[in-house]
């Protein structure tokens, strides 16, 4: 018999019973559910809403259920629909009438809102830890390759010389933002929905501050309708995971390119590559391809929750039961991708010889050639044109810029002197890009990874008008400014 069967004259249709149930997937929330129920029961006891003896019996009963679930001794049933009613039914079976008092002043609506919020909150440090481990791998590799010249690309065309370290540390910078995005989500979600009731609060003298505090929240959510119907935290979490996966996917794409014979900038360890069932020579970067592929499913998880939420009137609607699987799927995917990706990078062999060779072709020191002339007094735009002609001349002759003789260079401009060859040397070109964030500094791993301060001193709210040079307030922000 259903916990809610009171007003029904018939049993639930068997198809509906299964269709309606969420226990198949929400059993993952058993711990959060029991933790939340314990906090609720203690509060009911402390406020005198139930007797201290009943509260104690409930707490003991829930603890024994938790132990049994963890020991694999509990079977859940779709007849009890979801984790909340499964646990409650188990409790009443164990401790009798006291168990029936647990749900006083509470609804499954605030219960599920609490459980799910706590679940997301617990996943954040797990993923942050994995991100920091991946970041540590990048720092380790970068430390080894600070002077390894490779071509930097734009449009996937060789552009300017960089170090392999700088390339790796660009990803470390992205991961650093992923960390702060997740932590930011964690800060905003840390208000407690428990005590919102079904939607309108409750007539019992509950103490929401007490339950919020005992469950580690900063306080209770201020509006009970919002308390039961908010899933922003899950959406923020999924969007942070989507951005994170986008970063891994871009990196994967590069790993795949770098593994090709056309690049051969890296070789993956045999333990992190796979073979072909027909082509004996193949060594495929399946790990990177799968990470790239799985990015699509995490985006899909975000899109399904956004879409599920978009038309829902306040407050709870059963549609919201569909919130869990996308989040679970994204968590499983990300938590599987990060460690394997880190291990793949940790064990790769870096072919600095091939990077250097690739850097030697493609005129990636052409900007430096133009900069050389500019530093000797020629306007940059003219230097650019002179260098462009030299590149064309080299292309026709199958030469690099540094293979041109001084007389050949002088024919283009008499500002060229013997020191031009130093200026064109790729190692110099890279090392001299010492502007803040350039290869030497940008490629150096920080000695210890430090989280940037939560609020940078330079940050301003975007609504604050930024004065232009004359100190005027831009017209489009004046309205805001006046307010
Ligand atoms: N299994 C439900 C969910 O995941 C729990 C809340 C059910 N509430 C309700 N009023 N039917 O959303």
Quickly list its features.
Fumarase C, Chain B, domain 1; mainly alpha; Fumarase C, Chain A, domain 2; 3 domains; Ribonucleotide Reductase Protein R1, domain 1; 21 helices; two-stranded antiparallel sheet; 483 residues; binds arginine
Report the total helices: 21
How big is the Rg? 31 Å
The CATH homologous superfamily of the largest domain: Fumarase/aspartase (Central domain)
Q: Provide the domain count.
A: 3
Q: Can you list the ligands bound to this structure?
A: arginine
Low-pLDDT stretches are 452-468, 476-483
The general outline is elongated
Give the name of the CATH architecture of the largest domain.
Up-down Bundle
- Amino-to-carboxy terminus distance: 60 Å
- Walk across the major sheet and give the strand order: 1-2
The amount of helix comes to 55-70%
Per CATH, what is the topology of the largest domain? Fumarase C, Chain A, domain 2
Structure description:
This protein is mainly α and 483 residues long. It folds into 3 domains: 5-104, Orthogonal Bundle (Fumarase C, Chain B, domain 1); 109-358, Fumarase C, Chain A, domain 2; 366-424, Fumarase/aspartase (C-terminal domain) (Ribonucleotide Reductase Protein R1, domain 1), CATH 1.10.40. It is 58% helix and 4% strand. It is built from 21 helices and 4 strands. A hairpin with a 2-residue loop joins β1 and β2 (157-163). α3 packs across α9 (208-214) and α7 packs parallel to α13 (324-346). It is elongated. The relative contact order is 0.10. The structure holds arginine. Arginine binds at residues 22, 26, 82, 108-109, 112, 316, 318, 320-321.
